[in-house]
Amino acid sequence: MDWKQYLAAFVIFTGVGAVLLAAILLMQQQLPWYDSDHLTTPMTADLAANTAISFATTTTWQAYGGETTMSYLSQMAGLAAQNFLGAAAGLAVGIAFIRGFARQNTNALGNFWVDVTRAVLWILLPSSIIGGLILVWQGVPMNFAPYVHAATLEGGAQIIAHGPVAAFEAIKNLGTNGGGFFNTNGAHPYENPTALTNLLEMWMIAIVPAALTYTFGRMTGQPRQGWMLYGVMVLLFIGGLIACGWAEQAGGGLAGGNMEGKEVRFGIHGSVLAAVTTSNGATGSYNSMHDSYSAIGGMVPLVNMLLGEIVFGGLGTGLCGMVMMVLLCAFIGGLMIGRTPTYLGKQIGAPEMKLAALYMIIGSACVLSLTAIAVATDWGRTGLTTNDGAHGFTGILFAYASSFANNGQNFAGLSANSIFYNMTTGLAMLVGRLGPAALALALAGHLVEQNRKQTSAGSLPTDTPTFALLLLSTIIVLVALGFLPSLAMGPLSEHFRGVDGP
After folding, report:
1. Residue range 452-467: average pLDDT?
2. How many domains are contained in the chain?
């Protein structure tokens, strides 16, 4: 397939998956395993459409509580199936993007259907089976048992949901999906019962996207390039981890740090590790409530998403975003020192830079436009049922950043199950999924037709520590140019006013 055929297949695959999932959700009352006594949240048409788009685009934004909304059949045949298929489609696009650099003098980027099949059968399914069995060993349920009615020690009544959680949990992390089986996601003891599962699930989120940097080096025949990308990602990851950990440990002066919204069994450090990993990895699989973080602590996962989740990121999408940054950096750096703007032997000319520039600005255009509409209308402000002011603004900005980045985590202080938010976050998810993929494939289509030139003394070296430093600087400047004013109105304003928390 050339890039247009590959993109058409990707769009059709995503659209058909969303339609089929919406049909399952709307008909779940007539399908097996529907528990009308406990599934009390109505599945409206706008919520079904939002959820279908969410899981088909690997966003897994959840404007519902799983144990009160979804039947076992909807969770497995609908949501979990899309976790596999959506992740495979993203990985396929990432591999096709790499082929644009690895191949020459052709227009063929591979076959989308073959790539999706390989992604499911060779990577996602075997890994999920192994991961699911480990989770079962650690105490994660894997059954179709009815909900349990239990009495607490105080004599009160409690309903405990069960279900095929282990299978769902494995692919939600390995596929960088992130949607939880339960409403509290990774904070629920059935999804994440032990310190080992917390660490394992974080590892599952990062392992495949991080490994794609090695794949990039191997497929292009230049492993040093892959290691350079990986090194920059790790440095950004560590920077976010330090900043978020410091902010939460300081906790606005509270003794012992800010424990609001965090599980005692994970503590501040286990919660911060999850927050930074999920916000970098396109996986909203949180184990603490980010709405309760300090202003700076909550800003870290927000900035990670505004970066375009180039630190590991989603399957395929994270690598595409980082390489786009490299192309822009190589073009600017080459012009600054009078070197030929090339990358991996491929010429970076005006057509390539236009595509890369569009890739950079599409996120800010979408996120900031929708945020402006939300804060300027009663429809948007109605969702601020818990917070207002700077913190409420951050919650809205966070929602659209998460939707566009196909991440799915949220500030729980925003009531998002309304027609307005279901429609606008759904739009952000589609733009965030299809827009960058189209630009990445178009760029790969341009590059794959070129003849690869040999590296010469006139070429800018792009696998050195100096270039890595230039790349880091470029990333920081680009994000500041696009989003610093909105961050100043939200978390920075909240921090400097001394209102360090919700």
Report:
1. 78
2. 1
